[in-house]
Amino acid sequence: MIDYSIVKRAIDRADVCGLLACYAPPDEYDSESEEIAQLICEHDNAKRISEICSKVFSRTFSENITADRFLSVGFEIAGMLNIKIRNERPEDYRVVEELTKRAFHNVNFPGCDEHYLAHLLRGHADFVTELDLILELDGIPIANIMYTRSALVDENGGEKTVLTFGPLGVLPEYQRRGYGKRLLEYSLEKARELGYEAVVIFGNPENYVSSGFKSCKKYNVSLGNGEYPVPLLVNELKEGALSGKAWTYKESAAYNIDMSGLAEFDKDFPQLEKGYLPSQELFYIYSNSRFR
Fold it and tell me: Which of 68, 113, 135, 262 has the lowest tally of Cβ within 10 angstroms?
């Protein structure tokens, strides 16, 4: 048996029967996904997985739904069976920085600085080494996430330590295939095990609400000026941990990076052409949007 969420994501994305496209409820394929997850073994290949899907769906829908229609599902799930999540090691630093540069290049603005941020974060007192994680596919690092400690301050000055993550990067050729979400959700569970009660980030809501993040306003978390930034998101790892108080978010000083050293640092990295992507406009819109 494998993780149900991996199967569910792949089945929903493929929507072989076209029901989700016709506005069926999100749980339309839940029972089929659960049965398939129970039948798949960790060494099954894409062909075998597609055959399992075909068998389950053909029986459920009383028609012959051939295995070839599930090949994309098979390849996606088989890819997830070959992943390993582990802590970053010193010998990984350069690989992770190159990965991060490729992941963020031209995404938020022409070029990027996230690889320099990753380089500097490791030496800060707020950096959480236990949550500095790499996702490997067939032994090759394809994604990384880093966390720092930050704080929420209530109206009486009481302070609660929370977590912030970033950068979270996935190599471009592996994006939108569930690897980043898999790494994120693993790290959130690890954070919960370590005793942290909440994670607060600045991020694109479209990328994070499916992993439990909600608007900061729902938890009464602001920047202390009566405004609630749209990209300020909260994931309450312990239910009720933030209830009944008004909070001001204090991001770790680890993110107050002096970028004057970026150009020198970047000289030794592969040079990528700077340019415009539509995601830059989306970044601008979210960065300048507030709830009042």
Answer: 68
**Angle between the N-to-C axes of helices 93-104 and 114-121, in degrees from 0 to 180, rounded to the nearest 10:** 150
DSSP of 81-135: HTEEEEE--GGGHHHHHHHHHHHHTTTSSSS--HHHHHHHHTTSTTB-GGG-EEE
pLDDT value, residue 9:
87
What single letter denotes the amino acid at residue 62? S
The model's pLDDT over 159-173, given as tens digits with 9 standing for 90+, comes to 999 999 999 999 999
Please say whether the dihedral angle defined by the alpha carbons of residues 32, 74, 212 and 108, taken in this order, is positive or negative.
negative
- Give the DSSP H or E segment for 152: strand 140-154
Rounded Cα distance, 19 and 39, in Å: 23
Q: Going by C-beta distance under 8 Å and a sequence separation of 6 or more, which residues neighbour residue 50?
A: 67, 68, 69, 70, 71, 73, 74
- Asked whether the beta carbons of 165 and 146 are under 8 A apart, the reply is yes
Pull the structure tokens for residue 261.
């050293």
Q: Tell which residue, 131, 94, 100, 93, has the closest CA to residue 114.
A: 100
Of 107, 67, 77, nearest to 12 by C-alpha is 77
List the structure tokens of 55: 């068998």
Q: Which tokens hold the place of 224?
A: 């202390």
- Partners of 200 in the beta sheet? 234
Q: Name the packing angle between helices 71-81 and 4-14 (round to 10°).
A: 150
Strand bridging mode 221-222 / 247-250: parallel
Q: How confident is the model over 197-226, as pLDDT tens digits? A: 999 999 999 999 989 999 999 999 999 888
